[in-house]
Amino acid sequence: MRPDMDDTPQEITSLVGREVYSNNGVFVGEVEDLRLNVDGQAITGLALGNLNSELFTDATRSGQGVIVPYRWVRAVGDVILINDVVERVRQPDEEEEELIA
């Protein structure tokens, strides 16, 4: 069951500290905090730290985290699986490289 479907506070806070992986098995980062909607009834994003430096070069250099939209979450268990992060993150860099080359 997705945590935003359950209003038990300990279920939501238990996401903090979990590792996040893409559905292809690539480590993305670790949940440091959650973004909730105004009413606090649903999670809208995961604030990630301890990021994969290959995916988030600029953010890891500056010590910043990233927020992943919760709609990307596909499964929550011992780890959290999300869709498409590698393609979404790398796509702007690849386009930039094509423009430079």
- CATH superfamily heading of the domain at 30-85: PRC-barrel domain
Spatial gap, N to C terminus: 46 Å
The main pleated sheet reads as: 6 strands, mixed
Fraction in beta strands: 25-35%
Helix content: 25-40%
CATH topology of the domain at 30-85: SH3 type barrels
Annotated CATH architecture of the domain at 30-85? Roll
Name the strands of the widest sheet in spatial order: 4-3-2-1-6-5
- Rounded to an integer in angstroms, the radius of gyration calculated over CA atoms is 15 Å
Overall form? globular
CATH class of the domain at 30-85: Mainly Beta
Low-confidence stretches: 4-8, 91-101
Helix and strand run = HEEEHEEEH
What is the averaged pLDDT score?
76
How many β-strand runs? Answer: 6
Question: How would you describe what is shown here?
Answer:
The protein has 101 residues and is α+β, with helices and mostly antiparallel strands. The protein has a domain at 30-85: PRC-barrel domain (SH3 type barrels), CATH 2.30.30.240. Helix content is 27%, strand content 32%. It is built from three helices and six strands, in the order H-E-E-E-H-E-E-E-H. Strands 4-3-2-1-6-5 form a six-stranded mixed sheet, with no helix packed on it. This is PRC-barrel domain protein. Residues 12-85 form the PRC-barrel domain.
